[in-house]
Design goal:
By secondary structure, the protein is an alpha/beta fold. The protein is built from 12 helices and 18 strands. The chain folds into 2 domains: 167 residues, 2-Layer Sandwich (VC0802-like), CATH 3.30.2130.30; 217 residues, Vaccinia Virus protein VP39 (Rossmann fold). Bound molecules: S-adenosylmethionine.
Length: 393
């Protein structure tokens, strides 16, 4: 994963993140940086700012739910304010003909133009007269383009009544994630989640290489493919034999082989895990069942409630079975459906872990409200929300 300006990040106390999944991305970051985050804020829908101590670069390497990380270098009172601390830092890293860009999140066009002008003036004053300014569509240089154009990208966002600015210091290498979804033998886009989301969920599990993850509603195996790639041992179950075959094919492809090394996928019912696993316990469970039919229009609230009610018993019975099959320090990560209705309501499956001696995972100082909703998904009326449980000790 590319670190663009590593020193700058390590020295930063305030790190801004461009969120791929909204609140779920904040949960993932707090999980990866557990113990290092003192405070987190979300100044706009797309940005979170983490106040950190002892930031460990290695821990951030696997972050999946972020498009960019930037160090917050300055907060201006107004868009035409003095950017010298930023341009000092930039000039240290720039060569005469480098590409630069400004990516704005929640900044109006006029303010954007003022910020760009002021940044270019600052760079010229430092003798950098030939830097090339990229003009990205919608005032945002996408993270892939930051890499392909080799740009020093600065992000800007409203913050505490002013505008915060800082250079992008890390972006994920998203090409392998995309290929993992499209190039596997059985892609099944109609049921599969994205590899990026699968990685985010796996990060929430806190698993280390060599440990065992179970997906008891594995479908075509998207979560397990990503798990296998990070050297986790994979167990999968699905009640349909055809899905079991599809998952096996995808997992074989992931390890580039014909043997079933490192994984075991079986036909079975997620509500009977203790029997299926013969009493053995796994290090984590990560699953995305989404058991409601796809909708062609926003339903009425009463219809949505009926759909959610019909599937809720499978989720709750499966959760009880998962609680019996998890190691005492393991986590259970479950995606549930959330339906947006034509009456403007949101109806979600709710899971109660207390009766199963499970508590909700709360990394760091934030205090997440569960289920944690995903934002910016391409799905239409059926959205996703996530629970992370751990056994109460
Ligand atoms: C939405 S799909 C999961 C998709 C998966 N996350 C993927 O990326 O391919 C839900 C799966 O759960 C399976 N399923 C439904 N009820 C089940 C049960 N009680 N036990 C195990 N699997 C079940 C279905 O056959 C289906 O393949």
């Amino acid at each position: 994963m590319p670190f663009l300006l590593p020193d700058s990040l390590m020295e930063a106390r305030d790190v801004a993140m461009v969120l791929a999944f909204g609140k779920l991305s904040i949960l993932e970051a707090c999980s990866l940086m557990e113990g290092s985050v003192e405070r987190a804020e979300a100044p706009t829908e797309r940005i979170a700012v983490f106040h950190t101590t002892r930031l460990e670069r290695g821990r951030l390497r696997g972050l999946a739910g972020a498009h960019k990380l930037a160090s917050v270098v300055t907060v201006l009172d107004s868009p035409s304010g003095d950017q010298s601390s930023l341009t000092d830092l930039m000039s240290f890293h720039l060569e005469e003909k480098s590409n630069v860009s400004l990516s704005a999140y929640g900044v109006v066009d006029d303010d954007y133009e003022d910020l760009v002008r002021s940044m270019l003036d600052g760079l010229r004053n430092k003798g950098l007269r030939k830097v090339r300014l990229l003009r990205p569509k919608d005032n945002e240089l996408l993270s892939e383009k930051v890499l392909t154009r080799g740009a020093l990208d600065v992000i800007a966002f409203p913050y505490h009544g002013g505008v915060a600015l800082g250079p992008t210091v890390w972006v994920p290498d998203s090409a392998p994630m995309r290929q993992s979804g499209t190039q596997r033998p059985v892609p099944r886009p109609e049921i599969a989640l994205s590899p990026r989301l699968a990685r985010t969920l796996l990060n929430l599990s806190g698993l280390k290489p060599g440990q065992t993850v179970l997906d008891p509603f594995c479908g075509s195996g998207t979560i397990l493919v990503e798990a296998l790639k990070r050297s986790l041992r994979c167990l999968g179950l699905d009640s349909r034999a055809s899905r079991v075959q599809e998952a096996r094919e995808n997992l074989r492809w992931a390890i580039g082989g014909v043997t079933d090394r490192g994984f075991d996928i079986r036909k079975g019912d997620a509500r009977e895990l203790p029997r299926m696993l013969r009493g053995t316990k796994v290090d984590a469970i990560v699953t995305e069942p989404l058991l409601i039919p796809s909708l062609t229009a926003r339903p009425k609230t009463s219809t949505a409630e009926a759909l959610i009610h019909d599937s809720a018993s499978v989720y709750n019975d499966a959760l009880a079975s998962m609680a019996e099959s998890i190691q005492p320090n393991g986590r259970i990560v479950v995606v549930v459906p959330l339906i947006e209705t034509m009456d403007g309501d949101e109806v979600a499956v709710t899971l109660d872990g207390r009766r199963l001696n499970l508590r909700l995972y709360q990394p760091g100082p934030v205090g997440f409200e569960y289920p944690v909703r995903l934002s910016f998904e391409s799905t239409r009326w059926v959205k996703r929300a996530v629970y992370v449980f751990e056994p109460r000790v």
